[in-house]
């Protein structure tokens, strides 16, 4: 309960508080004072979502991904958009309004005024979407010009049967891992932390590969939330660490 309270306190003062108590007048909804409801619900969430108790519709279709650019430097396999990135994009692909929820406030009952609530500010001008197409808040379905998501870390080579990865790779820093319960979790340590995973490390998300190295095995992938922590905006755009000096990039890329 304490952990949940800390998260709520953190989100309250960020742009991800889309309720009427939000600090960002450009994207707040006047129909509810709730905060978590725009992403999570205690009942009736999407059981297929990688994010817990997800309260939004997920649509994996129609995405244009980085590998479709035909770049010759790509040496890792990219999975179809899924995992936690699909949850992020259920808001940030701009295809549905921010109050398009599976379970509205009020234990599933129709809440007077909620559907009739309004978004305040110019950034929510288009039917409740956060910003015009092309803004970082509204990436659209073409994400080929963004850092690839659903991509094997370090070009592949990490897997359940090879948790330490391919050994020294001059282009990437090694990933750390540990077993939690029956699963193995991977991450990339950032300066100033400890050997254990922390919120300021680059989190990697385990998926079962359908292509590339170790196909058929669980292995670590880079997803939206590898670099962004949606609950804490200590740094710009919810980045896990300060981007000054390209620290975010250089946490994984050895350049």
Secondary-structure topology with pairs:
Blueprint: H1 2-12, E1 28-29, H2 83-92, E2 119-120, E3 151-152, E4 176-180, E5 183-188, E6 202-203, E7 205-208, E8 218-222, H3 224-227, H4 247-252
Antiparallel strand pairs: 1-2, 3-8, 4-5, 5-6, 7-8
What can you tell me about this protein's structure?
There is one protein chain. The chain has 255 residues and is mostly loops. It has a domain at 150-255. The chain has four helices and eight strands; from the N terminus they run H-E-H-E-E-E-E-E-E-E-H-H. A three-stranded antiparallel β-sheet has the order 3-8-7.
Largest sheet features:
3 strands, antiparallel
- Strand order, main sheet: write it out: 3-8-7
Poorly predicted segments: 1-8, 109-114
The number of strands is 8
Instruction: Find the structural class using helix and strand composition.
Output: little secondary structure
Q: What is the overall pLDDT average?
A: 86
Distance between the termini: 42 Å
| Strand percentage | 5-15%
How do the helices and strands follow one another from N- to C-terminus?
A: HEHEEEEEEEHH
Number of helices: 4
Give Rg in angstroms: 19 Å
Helix content: 10-25%
Which shape, going by the Cα principal axes? globular
Features:
255 residues; little secondary structure; three-stranded antiparallel β-sheet; 4 helices; disordered N terminus
